[in-house]
């Protein structure tokens, strides 16, 4: 399919194709997709990594050879009180508190020979900014990754099996940017809110960008929609984050579940709050693609990644692959984590 054809496909056509393939009942569609694309027991009953198993030592070693210039990009949003959260599900922006400052004296601190120090603390939901959804984050009818009962594995004590700490080391490898916004979004390089990104859109983006954006087994795939760039302009005008956290957004169509499973990628991240298109394609549904890819495919999902500066550089030099280090913070038993992903070209 040509780039022009992919970019002109209306939402209603994509939605109709999804409903034709999976039916209009989201619960039945989720069950069908889960049965077709499950990775349960692929890596053994006790597995805690899911698709990150595809990212092995050999792939990490080869990813190191992608560094050519040493130019690095942080793909994280700032963590401060001006972040995107609006309180949904008690998700608030980080609260940063100074416990001691440069205004304190040695006499106040009880320290010798004039020594003073500044210390601080942060309260924050672990998924309030640039983050990973861990494998214990979403359940399908109470069942989590690898067929485990969520009520038994993720309790008030945390995730006893797939806690995010298990991913603190392996998430270094080949990153590949699919700048769908720039490929299909017209002159402004941004997809409209509500635009469902299809498998055809992803393939058309790879075709347009060239061989360095070929998606391979074990890759960490980054999908830029351009929504964050649009929100950033609103912020510059003093209009705030609007509905970025939870409102309408471009994102992956439910119909991409076969591609997400079949490519054997290690993880995927987007520049949007919810990874999948919003409003979701099935009437009355909420995040149905999450309900398949996390508990059934075992696919790690990243959200609210800032891909704009990296995308600009990739467009300039025509190279869309890079070394990517994107380890979560090792909070024991956590079902998600903030992350400061670093892409090195």
Explain what the structure shows.
This protein is 28% helix and 17% strand. The protein is built from twelve helices and 15 strands. The chain has helices at residues 3-8, 11-22, 26-37, 57-64, 106-109, 150-153, 180-184, 199-209, 227-236, 257-262, 288-297, 308-317; strands spanning 72-74, 95-100, 119-123, 131-133, 154-155, 158-159, 172-179, 196-197, 220-224, 251-252, 267-270, 300-303, 321-325, 336-338, 342-344. The protein has a nine-stranded mixed sheet with strand order 1-15-13-7-9-11-12-4-14, sandwiched between helices. Helix 3 runs parallel beside helix 11 (288-297). The longest helix is centred in the N-terminal third of the chain and has 12 residues, at 11-22. The model is unreliable at 1-6 (pLDDT under 50).
What is the number of helices? Answer: 12
Q: How are the strands of the biggest sheet laid out side by side? A: 1-15-13-7-9-11-12-4-14
What structural category do the secondary elements indicate?
alpha/beta
Radius of gyration: 21 Å
Shape: globular
**SSE string, helix = H, strand = E?**
HHHHEEHEEHEEEHEHEHEHEHEHEEE
Low-confidence spans? 1-6
Strand content: 15-25%
Span between termini: 30 Å
How many beta-strand segments? 15
Largest sheet: 9 strands, mixed
Question: What's the overall average pLDDT, rounded?
Answer: 95
Keywords:
disordered N terminus; 345 residues; 9-stranded mixed sheet
Lay out the secondary structure.
Elements: H1 3-8, H2 11-22, H3 26-37, H4 57-64, E1 72-74, E2 95-100, H5 106-109, E3 119-123, E4 131-133, H6 150-153, E5 154-155, E6 158-159, E7 172-179, H7 180-184, E8 196-197, H8 199-209, E9 220-224, H9 227-236, E10 251-252, H10 257-262, E11 267-270, H11 288-297, E12 300-303, H12 308-317, E13 321-325, E14 336-338, E15 342-344
Parallel strand pairs: 7-9, 8-10, 9-11, 11-12
Antiparallel strand pairs: 1-15, 2-3, 4-12, 4-14, 5-6, 7-13, 13-15
Helix pairs in contact: 3-11
């Amino acid at each position: 399919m040509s780039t022009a054809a992919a970019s002109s496909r209306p939402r209603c056509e994509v939605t109709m194709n999804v409903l034709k393939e999976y039916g209009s009942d989201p619960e039945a569609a989720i069950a069908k997709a889960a049965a077709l694309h499950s990775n349960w027991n692929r890596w053994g009953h006790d597995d805690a990594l899911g698709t990150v198993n595809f990212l092995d030592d050999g792939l990490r070693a080869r990813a190191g050879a992608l560094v050519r210039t040493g130019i690095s990009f942080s793909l994280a949003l700032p963590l401060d009180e001006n972040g995107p959260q609006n309180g949904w599900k008690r998700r608030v922006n980080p609260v940063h508190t100074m416990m001691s400052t440069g205004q304190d004296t040695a006499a106040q601190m009880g320290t010798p020979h004039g020594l003073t120090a500044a210390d601080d603390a942060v309260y924050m939901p672990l998924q309030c900014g640039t983050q990973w959804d861990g494998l214990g984050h979403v359940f399908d009818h109470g069942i989590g990754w690898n067929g485990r009962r969520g009520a038994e594995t993720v309790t008030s004590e945390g995730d006893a099996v797939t806690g995010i700490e298990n991913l603190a080391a392996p998430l270094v490898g080949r990153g590949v940017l699919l700048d769908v916004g720039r490929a299909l979004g017209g002159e402004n390089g941004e997809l409209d809110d509500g635009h469902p990104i299809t498998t055809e859109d992803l393939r058309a983006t790879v075709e347009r960008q060239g061989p360095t954006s070929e998606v391979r087994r074990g890759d960490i795939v980054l999908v830029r929609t351009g929504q964050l760039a649009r929100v950033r302009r609103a912020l510059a005008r003093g209009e705030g984050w609007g509905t970025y956290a939870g409102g309408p957004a471009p994102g992956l169509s439910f119909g991409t579940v076969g591609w997400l499973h079949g490519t054997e990628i290690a993880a995927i991240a987007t520049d949007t709050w919810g990874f999948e298109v919003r409003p979701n394609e099935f009437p009355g549904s909420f995040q149905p693609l999450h309900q398949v890819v996390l508990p059934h495919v075992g696919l790690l999902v990243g959200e609210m990644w800032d891909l704009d500066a990296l995308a600009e550089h990739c467009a300039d030099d025509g190279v869309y692959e890079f070394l990517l280090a994107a380890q979560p913070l090792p909070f024991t038993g956590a079902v998600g984590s903030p992350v400061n992903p670093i892409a090195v070209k």
